[in-house]
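hiii so my PI (J.) wants the whole complex modelled not just the main chain, which honestly fair. so below is everything: four entries, each one labled with what it is. i double checked the lines twice but i was tired so who knows lol
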Amino acid sequence: MDRLKKNVAIRSESRTRERLLQAAESMFMEHGYAATSLRGITARAKANLAAVSYHFGSKEALIREVFERRLGPLNSARVAYLDRLELAARGKPLAVERLVEAMLVPALQGTQDPLARGTTFLRLLGRAFSEPADHLREILPAQYRQVVIRFKQAFARSLPDMPDQELTWRMHFMFGTLSYSLAGNDALKLIATCNLEDADDADAVIRRLIPFLAAGFRAPLPDMQPARVVSGRKAA
Amino acid sequence: MDRLKKNVAIRSESRTRERLLQAAESMFMEHGYAATSLRGITARAKANLAAVSYHFGSKEALIREVFERRLGPLNSARVAYLDRLELAARGKPLAVERLVEAMLVPALQGTQDPLARGTTFLRLLGRAFSEPADHLREILPAQYRQVVIRFKQAFARSLPDMPDQELTWRMHFMFGTLSYSLAGNDALKLIATCNLEDADDADAVIRRLIPFLAAGFRAPLPDMQPARVVSGRKAA
DNA sequence: CGATCATTCAAACGTTTGTTTGAATTTCCG
DNA sequence: CGGAAATTCAAACAAACGTTTGAATGATCG
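here's the output for the full assembly
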């Protein structure tokens, strides 16, 4: 298996393999995993149907590779970004704005350069969190573990009075906003009553997300009394 | 067609139809739309395969009905909740906490009673926003339009200094957090380094989401200068 | 009861799915 | 060049898909 891979790389560098990955990334993003057929992928990649089995072994292995080749570098870049920030701060706790920034900037960085190729993966990634494809349930936790651990430490240092449980929840909320917001404007168009100017401007999204999320992290703790519900009679 | 429906209701009230809807709701939630087969649904509903065609006409019509029978009442309840709040406030602007509450409480209200039946739909709904099934792209905007318009007015009144564009973005962020947070703990487990106590307690989620989102809405406006990027050399 | 409708059922329809096969083709290196 | 390895290709595979059919069963009312 390793020998085979090496020969692939040495010989022709397998342009087909790369075309398949890009086509799969696009089509998984557009139609979802289950709704995308290998015939559609290979047609788009201008490759033969059997090429998927030959290069990856199965459809499942293909989607796994689509994620791993992107998610690993992305999360490594996030941690590296955080490392640089902390180094520059010389041990002082960072503002939560900087931590959110460290989650966001690497994600949207590769966007403008390769002509929205990075954006394609981000949309796919946003979908992946809600897609129940069994293969992903095993991939994502492994890919995200280091990021979660590392950033949680940093957040705890920046918000020393925040209980651990509450911090985990707020990071959970942050991931939700990210995966939804970065995942593209399809859903955005659903709720926008007026067309947003900057809908496709990644930088604008970052600048708007940072203060929004940072304020959420700094929000006062919820009072954990029994929930109040406004009934028809007695309104609050 | 109308005659047929009426007879269905009069005669046997079609228990089968209801079982199909519930089975479809569960299975769409667990495996997604495209990955769920009619054979799986009918098996779970203990109905015949042809029952779907008979009662709904097609798989597409089935999923449409699954959404419409839930989303309409949910969004109506949200607007009604907001109406009551504004009535009680006698024209005074509401705190953004109350507006977020009006989005949340109706969504999680039916949760505990029918033994997580409401929760099932919420997870499905969260997925729907990222699922690219073409049928949903037409359903969701129509179902959400009134909610968006109504709540945007209310938010604008509560946050008079917020530019319209910024408000739209922050509502967009809110929808992201909601659909991700309410959609269930599958994704939550992905990032939780420690097990959360209240992961299944809807009230606890509400109490934690409200201050988080309200603070986000009240966050200072972003400075719309060119984005700063921390490079390897010069850190910020 | 008998007629009439709604509903269920087993079986089959034609497509499309992911995967496999074995031969043809291309690429590489001695 | 020539042989070996890597890659492509058209064709076929069984399995699963959504949908349709026509007869069997059930309920309803004059």
